[in-house]
Amino acid sequence: MSFDPSSISVPSDLLPADGRFCCGPSKVRHEQVDAIVAARDTLLGTSHRKPPVKNLVGAVRSKLSDLFALPDGWEIVLGNGGSTVFWDVATFGLVRERSQHAVFGEFSSKFAEACASAPHLGTPSVVKSDVGTHPSLHAEDGIDAYALTHNETSTGVAMQLTRPAGTSADSSLVLVDATSAAGGLTWSPSEVDVYYFAPQKCFAADGGLWLAACSPAAIERINEIGGSERWRPASLDLAIALDNSTKNQTYNTPAVATLVMLDAQLDWMLGNGGLDWAAGRSATSAATLYGWAEARDWASPFVANPDERSNVVGTIDLDDSIDANDVCAVLRQHGVLDTDAYRKLGRNQLRVGMFPAIEPSDIEALTATVDHVVAQMS
C-alpha cells in the first residue's frame, strides 16, 4: 500500500515562515524581486552595450571585489552559460597542458571529464575520495592547473581552500568551482587563482551566468593562451570574456534580470557586514541542523568528519525504517520544498539548502517540523 502524505497534518505554527530550502536555484528574497520591478523602465529591455546595463555590470564587479576583499590586480570576469559552460571555457583558456582534479561527488567530477575529453589537453590526473569525504591534491610534475571544489553540492562536503603543497602561482594555477559556496563560505585569495561560480545559490539569482574572480597569475595565463594558436570558439574564449568584462559588458547578451537580482543580493550582504556576516548566517543554520541530527537516534549527518561538513548544503541520513521520500512528500504538502536527496547519490536522506538568504530560524522550524512528521509516521 502506497504512503499517502495527506494523512499527516502539520500545525501551521510549527512550519517555517518560508519553505524554500532548495540547493539551487535557491530562495530568492522578496527585495530582489522588488529590484526587478524597480528596473522595469530603466534596465529591462534595454541594450547591454549602453550605460545603464554597463553601469550595472560594473557595480556587480566592484561589489564582488569588495565582498571577497580581492587584492589589487584581480579582475571579476563574467560570461553567459553558468558553471557548466565555464568548465569548457577553462579547458580552452586556463589549462595549458594538464590538470589535476579533486573528485568527490557529481559536480567535482564534471570538470575532470571536460578536461579528459578535450583533444588539445593531456590526460588529467584525478584524485578521488569516497562521497561524504574530500581528497587532498598534491604537487605533480607536468600539472599546470589544480582543480578544487569549495562545496560539493551533491553530497554536502566542503573543503578548506589551500594551494597544494609544493606548488606556486608562478608555475600552476588553483581553479576553484565555488558555485554553491561563493557568498556563503569564506576563502583567502592568497590560496586561489580562479574562483568561479554561478549566481543561483548563495546569491539567489537565476542561472545562466558564470562569474570568475581571477588573480594576476590567472590573467597572465588567459592572455598567454589567448595569444596562442590554440583554436577556441569565440563564446568560450576567456580572453574575449576578460576584454569585455573590463569594459563592463559581456561578449553576448546577458539576462539583465539576473544581474539585477545579483546586484540586490550584493547590496544586502555588504550592507549587513559582508562575507563574514553572510557566512555567519549559514554557519548558524548549519550548527542547528547538524546538532539536531546528532541528537536523534534516527538521523545523523551524512558527512562524518565535522571539519568537512558544509555550512551551505546539509545532508542528513535517516534510519532505514523512515523513508526520506515520504518525509519529503509530507513536507511538500505543507509548502516545505526541495528537501530531497541528490538524485544520483541514492541515499535515504534529506538535503537542505542553508544559503545566507535562508533564515536560520526557518532551519530551526524545519527540524521541529521533521520531528513532528516522523513522530506521526511511526
From TrEMBL:
Keywords: Amino-acid biosynthesis, Aminotransferase, Cytoplasm, Pyridoxal phosphate, Pyridoxine biosynthesis, Serine biosynthesis, Transferase
Pathway(s) served: Amino-acid biosynthesis; L-serine biosynthesis; L-serine from 3-phospho-D-glycerate: step 2/3
SUPFAM superfamilies xref list: PLP-dependent transferases (SSF53383)
Domain Aminotransferase class V span(s) in chain numbering: 145-336
Cofactor: pyridoxal 5'-phosphate
Entry keyword annotation includes tRNA-binding: no
EC number annotated for this UniProt entry: 2.6.1.52
Signal peptide: none
GO BP, sorted A to Z: glycine biosynthetic process, by transamination of glyoxylate; L-serine biosynthetic process; pyridoxine biosynthetic process
Enzyme class: transferase
Function: Catalyzes the reversible conversion of 3-phosphohydroxypyruvate to phosphoserine and of 3-hydroxy-2-oxo-4-phosphonooxybutanoate to phosphohydroxythreonine.
Family as reported in the entry's similarity comment: Belongs to the class-V pyridoxal-phosphate-dependent aminotransferase family. SerC subfamily.
Protein name: phosphoserine transaminase
Species: Ilumatobacter coccineus (strain NBRC 103263 / KCTC 29153 / YM16-304)
Name of encoding gene: serC
